């Protein structure tokens, strides 16, 4: 279920909202997702990334997320990424980005690229001036293989993800498509060609190497 502007959540027990990998600060803002990827650690009862337990008992509040970011100047980038789809909390995400913008060197979202489909509108203009980079999960060279591995909840997700990338190019300066090498039927060179056709970057990920 997408976030509305009126969504308000109460703080609960302490949980891992911010975590550091290398020189980046990651913000784990929801466990909810618009995909049910068969290779996602949480579907194998593994809720950890590099020993960080990322299972949430509630969606953290705006104040919790900002506090979890720490001092953005200490990191190369702030990344919205956990074991869930951060754009399902789009309005909270954008407000956090607004608050951190003047201190963050770079703000990136790891996303499945389905926000436009989920919200029923083009949300990419909302990111202009706030989001520096997007890492978008392409994951397959066609809809058939994508559906097999990513198991989207909404029909037309693969095409919607590609359309999201096309729209986002106008508002976000750095976009990279990613695909997981090691999944049955996934053609990494074909995925890279899709990125080239779209005029964006490409990064090969490795199956079971999370974080």
UniProtKB/TrEMBL annotation:
Which cofactors, by name? [4Fe-4S] cluster
Under the heading InterPro entries, the entry gives: Aldolase_TIM (IPR013785), Organic_radical-activating (IPR034457), rSAM (IPR007197), rSAM_sf (IPR058240), rSAM_TatD-assoc (IPR023821)
Name the UniProt record assigns to this protein: Radical SAM protein
Q: Which Gene3D superfamilies does this entry report, sorted A to Z?
A: Aldolase class I (3.20.20.70)
- Which Gene Ontology BP annotations are present? glucose metabolic process
* KW Iron-sulfur (keyword) present: yes
What is the scientific name of the source organism? Candidatus Muproteobacteria bacterium RIFCSPLOWO2_01_FULL_60_18
Asked if the Swiss-Prot or TrEMBL record annotates the protein with the keyword Chloroplast, the reply is no
Check the record and name the SUPFAM superfamilies matching this protein. Radical SAM enzymes (SSF102114)
Annotated ranges, domain Radical SAM core = 19-211
Any one GO MF annotation of this record: catalytic activity
């Amino acid at each position: 279920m997408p976030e509305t502007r009126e969504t308000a959540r109460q703080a609960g027990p302490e949980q891992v909202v911010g975590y550091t990998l290398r020189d980046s600060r990651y913000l784990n803002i929801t466990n909810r997702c618009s995909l049910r990827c068969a290779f996602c650690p949480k579907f194998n009862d593994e809720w950890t990334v590099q020993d960080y337990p990322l299972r949430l008992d509630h969606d953290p509040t705006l104040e919790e997320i900002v506090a979890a970011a720490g001092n953005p100047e200490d990191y190369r980038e702030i990344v919205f990424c956990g074991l869930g789809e951060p754009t399902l909390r789009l309005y909270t995400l954008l407000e956090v980005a607004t608050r951190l913008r003047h201190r963050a060197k770079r703000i990136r979202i790891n996303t499945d690229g389905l926000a436009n489909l989920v919200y029923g509108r083009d949300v990419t203009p909302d990111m202009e001036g706030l989001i520096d980079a997007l890492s978008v999960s392409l994951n397959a060279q066609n809809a058939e293989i994508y559906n097999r591995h990513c198991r989207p909840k909404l029909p037309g997700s693969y095409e919607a993800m590609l359309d999201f990338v096309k729209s986002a190019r106008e508002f976000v300066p750095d976009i990279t498509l990613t695909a997981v090498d090691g999944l049955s039927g996934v053609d990494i060179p074909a995925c890279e060609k899709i990125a080239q056709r779209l005029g964006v970057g490409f990064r090969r990920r490795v199956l079971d190497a999370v974080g």
